[in-house]
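Per-residue structure
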Amino acid sequence: PDQRQALIKNRLIQHGRVVCIQLAAELGVSEHTIRRDLQELANQGLCKKVYGGAVIAVPAAGDLSDRIQSSGADKTRLGHAGAQLLRDGSCVFIDSGSTNMAIAKAVSIEQRLTFVTHAPEIAVELVRRPLCEVILLGGKLNKHLGASVGPGTIRQLETMYFDQCLLGVCALDAIEGVTASDFDDAEFKRAIVRQSSEVFIALTADKLGAVARHKVMPCEGISTLMLDGEAADKLPAFQDIHWSLIQLATAKD
């Protein structure tokens, strides 16, 4: 069983998703045995069971300030890629998240943009750009998200329309789409998408192929997806989705 579960775990890491019937045929065991293996892996927090199989578990995330401090070179590269997509004169909503903070840091002092955000730390970073206007939405701050969420913040959001939005993502799966771990955060993200003409997502490989608890939007609603180079093995599952894909090289390439 240990060897079989190790193989299943490797498949999850490589592809983000496994299917019971396929694993059973490949390994010469019953589907019941595979389901039991998946349950044990789920109990260890390594995967989440879904209909017909399992997907890789959403990586644990600390508070926003901690995630910003621990951001590595992959997020820095994604940050520069994201900033280059922002068109001068646009009104841009920037969601909370450490990758979106990397994008905020990469915004040039020569860019002329209007930013709206509900994340104070991101607003403080953006207000340093002399040609940018920054609007900070108010409300009760969620410490983990590093942003205000809830009905009051959504009401403020719904008075605006955005040319582009940078959506923070907990998980992205080819079938389940964009999902979020927090109920209020998912509701807020759905509101962002409704108010935005284009949806941009910058994502590290560990979130690709994963599924969180709350639905946000289908993959088809994403205008542009930016990925670090480690995500290459998981991309075949997304081959039928029509979006603009920007895949960055890894630091070692």
Notes: The first strand starts at residue 17 and ends at 19. The chain is about 35% helix and 25% strand.
